[in-house]
Design brief:
Elements lengths: L9 H22 L1 H9 L21 H6 L15 E4 L9 E4 L1 H17 L7 E4 L7 H13 L2 E3 L6 H11 L3 E4 L1 H13 L11 E5 L5 H11 L2 E8 L4 E7 L7 E3 L4 E6 L13 E7 L10 E7 L1 E2 L10 E2 L4 E2 L4 E3 L2 E3 L1 H8 L5 E12 L2 E11 L1 H7 L6 H22 L3 E7 L19
Parallel strand pairs: 3-4, 3-5, 5-6, 6-7, 19-20
Antiparallel strand pairs: 1-2, 7-8, 8-9, 9-14, 10-11, 11-12, 12-15, 13-14, 16-17, 18-19
């Protein structure tokens, strides 16, 4: 069965990766104009790659390389041998295009089946698949993987939350997948209908496509009464299923490194950093056929580690801190939205629906405006008259304590505005953008 590889001893895994890398380099040297040129520019011969240890001799591939070869310049098979095309989810400019042969679609299904299994899902369960279907890899990726595992799938896609909740209550799925911010929107709708967690059939939620932290996990698990795990991936590499948490372990995700070899590079020197240190995740697709990539610069910030008490032998990665593009520099301090989200966990009563607006002076970001919601129950417990002085003082002090906690944990100045629960815009389906336009 395809799961056994997850338990390979390290030396066997390295042997498998080495064989696959050597084959890949020879394959690219034969079929890819792009990599052939890169190899000759750097004076590299395919024979120079003797094992996975030699990976750092290979060129790094950037998103710009994909853009420059739009649409099919990086494909290593003719269009007639493709089974599917997907694109990245960016909304501006030309999309990044990725192609799959039949073998690639099978590989995609396998890694998603492995991911669903790690998330707790099993053959015979029903998946409520609220990832977007279409050129985004989430919907179809999870769909095929679930079918491979032997699950049935409701291909509901994202949006129309009222209908989503009707069907969750009527069809009683055991598993749901969507973005974490959309899982919160679904939880809100269930709560508005007065449905307690015990009456919801869901047991496992497979959430990803955007950064999220433990505070969001806590809310989702409590409100939906399930285990929520993190699925990571990107279209350029395959889609969802590059890495996945185990539902009984959590805290970090296995990278399915028999297919996707990870490295962490320093963002400036581009040299490998040791295990445990943060940097940019760079991935080599060891087995893809239509559009293999060498050392693809994902732009996602994380670190790798081995978990000796884990069920599987493969390397794990910490949750993504953010995309290098989403990093804000506030008076010289580097900040990712997820760090602000993390700080909310230090204050009881914060609902982690929030938006960040950089405040600029002379083209420099000097502070962040943070709009965030406060829990209704906390307000009710104070028994204030709304808009009384006591209420205003309470909200003022609450905002100050959030500002203080962010300062303590992240080291930046913020202007926190507190909003009533359910008053800020919610995620309507796909990925949420927490950073608003600069002021
Ligand atoms: O978001 C694939 C996916 C679909 C992953 C469904 C998980 C679930 P893209 O649209 O190409 O593909 O966007 C990839 O999204 O480089 C990360 O910046 C971000 N991302 C994806 N999963 C996570 C995650 C899909 N679990 C980009 N945590 C990636 C943090 C994530 N960021």
């Amino acid at each position: 069965m395809y799961f056994s590889v997850e338990h390979l001893e390290l030396d066997q895994l390295r042997k498998l990766q080495s064989e696959r890398l050597k084959n890949l380099v020879a394959y690219l040297d034969e079929r890819s104009e792009f990599y052939k040129r890169k190899f000759s520019e750097s004076g590299l011969f395919p024979q120079d790659i003797k094992s996975i240890e030699d990976i750092s001799k290979l060129p790094i591939t950037y998103k710009q390389d994909l853009r420059d070869s739009y649409p099919f310049g990086l494909f290593t098979v003719p269009k007639s041998q493709l089974q599917r095309i997907h694109c990245s989810s960016g909304t501006t400019g030309k999309p990044t295009v990725v192609g799959y042969t039949k073998e690639d679609v099978d590989l995609f299904s396998e890694v998603v089946a492995r991911s669903l299994n790690a998330a707790g899902a099993q053959r015979g369960m029903l998946l409520h698949n609220a990832y977007g279907y279409g050129i985004f890899t989430g919907g179809l990726g999870l769909h095929y993987g679930a079918e491979k595992l032997g699950m049935s799938v409701l291909p509901i896609s994202g949006g129309m939350t009222v209908r989503q909740v009707d069907l969750i209550m009527d069809f009683k799925p055991e598993v749901i997948c969507c973005s974490p911010s959309y899982a919160l929107t679904i939880a809100d709708e269930l709560a508005n209908r007065g449905i307690p967690a015990e009456d919801i059939s869901l047991k496992y939620a497979v959430l990803g496509s955007e950064p999220w932290t433990e505070i969001i996990r806590g809310h989702i698990e409590k409100r939906l009464g399930l285990h929520a795990t993190n699925i990571y991936g990107l279209s350029e590499i395959i889609g969802p299923g590059v890495s996945m948490e185990d539902w009984e372990e959590k805290g970090g995700s296995y990278i399915w490194e028999d297919h996707f070899y990870p490295e962490i590079l320093d963002p400036v020197t581009k040299l490998p950093v040791p295990y445990g240190e943060e940097g940019v995740l760079v991935i080599t697709t060891l087995t893809k056929k239509a559009m293999p990539l060498l050392r693809y610069w994902t732009n996602d910030i994380t670190s790798l580690y081995y978990d000796t008490s884990a069920k599987r032998t493969m390397v794990k990665m910490k949750p993504i801190v953010g995309r290098a593009d989403d990093m804000l520099i506030v008076r010289g301090v580097n900040v990712y939205p997820s760090q602000i989200e993390d700080a909310f966990s230090g204050i009881k009563g914060v609902v982690p629906n929030y938006y960040l607006t950089p405040i600029e002076k002379e083209h420099m970001c000097v502070a962040l405006e943070v709009d965030v919601e406060i829990n209704d129950e906390l307000i009710r417990a104070q028994q204030f008259e709304i808009n009384s002085n006591d209420y205003t003082n309470f909200i003022h002090n609450f905002a100050e304590s959030v500002e203080g906690e962010i300062k303590r944990r992240v080291g930046i100045t913020t202007k926190v505005k507190i909003h009533a629960q359910d008053s800020l815009p919610k995620c309507e389906g796909g990925k949420i953008n927490r950073i608003l336009k600069r002021k």
